[in-house]
Amino acid sequence: MSYLTNRLFILQGTASVVLAGLISALKLVGGSLADHKFLFLGAGEAGTGIAELIALEISKQTGAPLDETRKKVWLVDSKGLIVKSRLNSLQHFKKPWAHDHEPSIRPTVLIGSSGAGQTFTKDVVEAMASFNEKPIILALSNPTSQSECTAEQAYTWSEGRAIFASGSPFAPVEYNGKVYVSGQSNNAYIFPGFGLGLIISGAIRVHDDMLLAASEALAEQVTQEHFDNGLIYPPFTNIRKISAHIAAKVAAKVYELGLASRLPQPENLVAYAESCMYSPKYRNYR
User: Fold this and answer.
1) Which terminus of the chain is less hemmed in, N or C, by CB atoms within 10 Å?
2) Where are the beta strands (DSSP E) in the chain?
C-alpha cells in the first residue's frame, strides 16, 4: 500500500468512526442526521473527509442529492467560515463546502479537526449549550494537548448537558455529583473489522457504501446501558465482537454491490468473520 493510499485509508477510517458516533448520538438527542447542522473547526483533509461521509449518509437516508446534503455542513479554516465569496481562493477539496452565507449559524454538532488545542473556549461551549439542550461536541485532535477542549471543560461549561467524545482519551469527570465517562473516537474501532470484511468477501474494489455500512454497524453496538452513561461508542474491551459485526456488515455490502470475488456468500457472515479471526492462543509445553 502506497503512502498516499494508506493516508487516504486512515482519513476514511477516521470519518467512519466519527459518523458512527453521530449516528449513535441521535439516540440521545433525537431526530435524524438531516435534522442537524454540523460545524467543523478545521477544513483540512481530515475535516473535509468526515464532512463528506456525513453528507453521503444523509443523502443515503433521505434520497437528496449530495450537493444539497453538503449544505447541512459548514467548515471554518484559518481564514474563517468557508463561504461562496471565497470560492476562487479555496483549495479544491474545500470548494464543495463553500455555501451562501447565512445570517447566523446555530449548529447542533460541533466537530474539531483543527489540530489546535483549546480552541473550543468557554464562550463557544456555552453558546452551543444555550441553543441546544444536548450539544454534541467532538474534540478530535490528537494528542491530548491539541484537543480543542477537555472532557472536563465540555461537561462543566455545558452544565453537564454535552454529549462529548474526543480523539484523545480523558479520565471520567465528576460534575454536580454525577460521573461522566466520555468516549474516544478511535480509528481502531473500524480498521480491524473493515479490513476483515473486505478480505472474507474478496472485495475487488472499496466503495463509500462500505464505509457507511461500517459506521452503521459500529453504532449498532452501543447499548442502552452505554447511552445511560452518556457514551456514544461501545467499550473498546469488546473490540473482537465489534469487529466481527463490522466485518459482517461490510462483507454484506460488498456482496450486495456485486464486488465480491469469494463466492458463494457465507450463510452467517458474523460467524464466518469470527472463524477467520486470529486468536493469540499458545500451547503450554510445561
Assistant:
1) C
2) 38-41, 73-77, 80-81, 109-112, 136-139, 163-166, 173-175, 178-180, 183-184
Q: What share of the chain is helix, strand, coil (3-state, %, to 5)?
A: 50, 10, 40
Question: Is residue 132 a known part of a binding site?
Answer: no
Longest dimension (CA), the chain: 74
- pLDDT at position 22, please? 98
Reported as a pLDDT band with limits 50, 70 and 90, residue 258 is very high
Average pLDDT, the chain: 93
> Are residues 209 and 286 in contact, defined by beta-carbon separation less than 8 angstroms?
no
What single-letter amino acid sits at 44?
G
pTM: 0.93
Average pLDDT over residues 147-156: 97
142 annotated among ligand-binding-site residues: yes
SS3 169: coil
Residue among 109, 89, 85 at smallest CA distance from 185: 109
Q: How many residues does the chain have?
A: 286
Determine the Cα angle at 212 with ends 203 and 134, to 5°.
160
